[in-house]
Amino acid sequence: MTHTLYYKLLLGYLLFGFLGFVTIATFSSEMTYRHLLREEAEALYDEAVLIADNCSMAYEGKHVDLDSSYPQMDAVAVYLKADIWILDSRGRIIADTRRQRVGAVIEDFDPVTQGNRLYTLGRYFGQFKEEVLSVSAPITGNMNTYGYVVIHLPVSVVRAKQNDFLNIVYITSLILFGLSLIILLVFTTAVYLPLKKITYAANEYAAGNLSHHIEISSRDEIGYLAHTLNYMS
Q: Contact at 8 Å (CB) between 149 and 85?
């Protein structure tokens, strides 16, 4: 007779662990990524609005005193690990926390491409070599829009936070998977090994050895079955 019950349980246990890992690596990973994107976008947008309000108060006619904005922008950029730009209404960069693109004009600039979305993902009109998360807030005053504050965060920063979070989830899942071995050990001790003794005894009885005694003293159903078979023999 092939003894497969224990191996089926072991296979089910390993399959449970594998499917659990796949679930975390796919569904949980994507859900975490989307959540972090939304969370980062909301934080960036709040900062963009604050900077835009500061710029609005600095406008005199159609000019802005950028010297009053740079300290705040630099501090926020370092804290958020992001690039902050101030654009005029035509897409010319008039301030850049990296001081690399000041005076450049963004081709095909269209401030309405973001629509009603909180953020956009991409290379922002081809201005970056890597994918960035971009949010913008208008600089307004006297019923006019003078420009935009745009904050760009590399998506790699979001991915790094996602990986840090998933590492915690993976470690926790691994610990839980290890603790679930207790169930397998309990099954082995309380069910599988006694069942092997009962199976062996049944074969002995079938062979005519009715003097064989099953050494099981537990007071559960397995023990009751062993006691019954001993009585029958």
A: yes
Residue with tokens 């006694």, as numbered in its chain: 194
DSSP secondary structure letters along the chain: ----HHHHHHHHHHHHHHHHHHHIIIIIHHHHHHHHHHHHHHHHHHHHHHHHHHHHHHEETTEE-GGGTHHHHHHHHHHHT-EEEEEETTSBEEEETTSSSTT-B-TT--GGGGTT-S-EEE-TTTT-SS-EEEEEEEEEETTEEEEEEEEEEEHHHHHHHHHHHHHHHHHHHHHHHHHTHHHHHHHIIIIIHHHHHHHHHHHHHHTT-TT-------SSHHHHHHHHHHHH-
> What tens digit of pLDDT does each residue of 165-175 get?
888 888 888 88
Residue 159: pLDDT band (50, 70, 90) is very high
